[in-house]
Amino acid sequence: MNLPLPVASWQNQLQTAFSSVKELCDYLHISSQHLPLLDDTANFPFKVTHDFAACMEKGNPNDPLFLQVLPVNQEHVETPGYVNDPVGDLEASSGPGIIQKYQGRVLLISTQACAIHCRYCFRRNFPYTDNRISSSQLDGLISELKRRTDIHEVILSGGDPLMLNDHKLQDIFSQIESINHIKRIRIHSRLPIVLPDRITPALLQLFAHSPKQIIMIVHANHANEISNKVKEACHLIKSTGAISYNQSVVLKGINDNVDALQQLSEVLFETGIQPYYLHTLDRAKGTAHFAVADEQAKHLVSQLTRRLPGYMVPRLVREIKDQPHKTPLI
Ligand code: SF4
């Protein structure tokens, strides 16, 4: 009798994630020999979960998920306007790991870790080591938040906040939950998409029992990322009463066509996730090869508007340093 294989914990899955291009190429039956690979990934290492890799098409070097994680030598090209901190995170920081750009909200860089390294990431050059929040700094921040009655929402970002274990998250949640004027806890995470087993019963309990409104902002760029496992995880999140939105980035060769954007919106909506923002690329150093011109992005969204009901069309925005909100492009 064949017994089902035991499911590895999400932590074990992280430990066995692909950490070399060759390993992933072998799995996908793609020859790495002719790929224009980056010779040195020390600053931003290669990392891909098996769940995300399982959504890639075998034998296809142009697969839209594969291209999101492939380190190519174009990352070395210096492009004017592409900088280490494209959205002004450091200027908006009032202390290690704390960013406040917008009224009523404060963002915590809760960890530097991610389950996957997206090559277009706007924080790929972020100085995480100088921005780690220690336990005592977190206590200080909570005291500060108690005084700041103008803050109504705490955003857990990173890295990916769901890389913290359930115990650590419980600790952060309980401290935030002790502050009456905080109404919402928002979590920016790619883990429901790239490591759906991270949605553990303990995490679901944390969401379900929180007295605050929980907002989950996931990040998917292509419909192929939404596997059945991802759908199940997202439905579980929804069952806790949390509200889920998706942010994506319009990326050259990956989702810069109206069919891809339409399929993404449709599958997100079926999964209980509201398409929210379609970001133009933040101009982080090493990412220029992903850029889609604003005019093309606007054209894509106006085509999408003809095809889909308004509630399924994400807002096309650019994040501009020092602006008090995201800037809509149409
Ligand atoms: S998961 Fe998010 S923070 Fe991490 S590398 Fe990808 S885009 Fe960047």
N to C succession of SSEs: HHHHEEEHEHEHHEHEHEHEE
Number of strands: 10
Helix content: 25-40%
Structural class: alpha/beta
CATH-defined architecture of the largest domain: Alpha-Beta Barrel
CATH C-level category of the largest domain:
Alpha Beta
- What kind of oligomer do you see? single chain
Ligands, ions, cofactors: iron/sulfur cluster
Query: Spatial order of the strands in the main sheet?
Result: 1-2-3-4-5-6-7-8-9-10
Strand content: 5-15%
How big is the Rg?
Answer: 20 Å
3D architecture notes:
The chain has about 325 residues and is α/β, with parallel strands linked by helices. It folds into 2 domains: about 70 residues, no CATH class; about 240 residues, Aldolase class I (TIM Barrel, Alpha-Beta Barrel), CATH 3.20.20. The chain is built from 11 helices and 10 strands. A 10-stranded mixed beta sheet has the order 1-2-3-4-5-6-7-8-9-10. The protein is globular. The relative contact order is 0.12. Iron/sulfur cluster binds next to loops.
Task: Tag the structure with descriptive keywords.
330 residues, alpha/beta, TIM Barrel, 2 domains, 10-stranded mixed beta sheet, 11 helices, globular, binds iron/sulfur cluster
